[in-house]
Design a protein that fits this description.
This protein is an all-alpha fold. It is built from seven helices and no strands. Helix 2 runs antiparallel to helix 3. The two termini are 27 Å apart.
Length: 150
């Protein structure tokens, strides 16, 4: 799969994790929804709004399932990098989803270079936010990468 298809998969994973958090939907239901309705399978799309471009769907599913399977460990890694007296719940839900996906990838996907993973999630953050969130995500993921990758 191309790097572009993995970038789309990361964006979809962040959207799926966000959707699961705000709606309470289960992991398999959300993965199936994205597979059936969100990923572009035809040149015209699926007729239900703007579908995502071609994605590495196996990578997407691995990210979403991996975050769910390892969420306690991932959240502990993130909390360890927050300023004193900050709780994970104080972060924007989108930032939480970005950090969770990024930490999972750093901790459990050794096939992805550290710099690529961090850059991808920083760019994703910038697509959602104009403010300091990109720098925050960069710093948090860089600190986690030092812990999990040495």
């Amino acid at each position: 799969m191309s790097r572009g298809q993995r970038s789309v998969a990361r964006l979809a994973a962040v959207q799926a994790l966000y959707q699961m958090e705000v709606s309470g939907a289960g992991v398999e239901a959300v993965i199936r929804e994205f597979s059936d309705h969100r990923f572009d399978r035809s040149p015209e799309g699926d007729g239900e709004g703007a579908p995502l471009a071609a994605a590495d769907e196996a990578f997407f599913a691995d990210l979403v399932r991996g975050v769910v399977d390892h969420q306690r460990e991932i959240d502990a890694a993130v909390v360890g990098k927050l300023a004193a007296n900050w709780r994970l719940e104080r972060l924007d839900a989108t930032v939480r989803a970005i950090l969770r996906a990024g930490v999972f990838e750093l901790a459990h996907r050794s096939d992805v270079p550290t710099e690529v993973a961090i850059d991808e999630y920083v760019e994703l953050t910038k697509s959602f936010f104009d403010g300091p969130e990109g720098g925050f995500v960069n710093g948090a993921l860089d600190a986690v990468a030092r812990d999990v990758r040495g």
